[in-house]
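Now for my pick.
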Amino acid sequence: MTNTLKYKNKSISQGIAFGTMDGVVNVLGIIAGLSLAGVDSRTIILGAIAAGFANAIANSSGFYVSEESILADKEVNIIKATIVAFLSSLVSALILSIPILLFLPLTGLLASVVLGLTILFILGIVFSSSKTSRTKLGIRYVIIGLFATVAGLLIGVLID
C-alpha cells in the first residue's frame, strides 16, 4: 500500500480497493452486454444501477464476513470498512453510468470502458505495495476489467 492511502485501519483501504475493483469490473461487463444487446440507454442505466446496488450489497456483505473471520475483535473498524466497500462499489457503478446518460449507447459504452479501465489502472498504482510494481499492478487490474468487458460483450452479442 502506498503512503497515499495508509490508514490506521488497514481494513478501510482494503474496503476501498475491494469495492472499487468489484464495482468497476461488474458494471463494465453489464454495460458492455446491455449495449450490444441493442437496448436503449434508459435500460442500460437501469441495469447498471440496479446491478450496482445489488453488487454493492453482495460484495460489502462478503467483505464483512471475510474481515470478521480475521478481525473478530475489531467490530467497529470492520463495520466502517464494510460501509466503505459498499460506497466504493456503488459510486463506481454510478460513475460508469454517467457516459451512458450523456451519449448514445455505443459512444457511452466506449467512454465507460475508457473511464473504468482508467479507474482500475489508478487503483493498481495507488494500492501497489512497492514502487517497482505500480505499473504492473495497474496493468493487471486493466486486464481484469477487459476480461469483464469482453465477457459482457460476448453475452450481449449472444442475446441480441
In short: The chain has one domain: 9-151. Residues 9-151 form one domain. The mean pLDDT is 86.
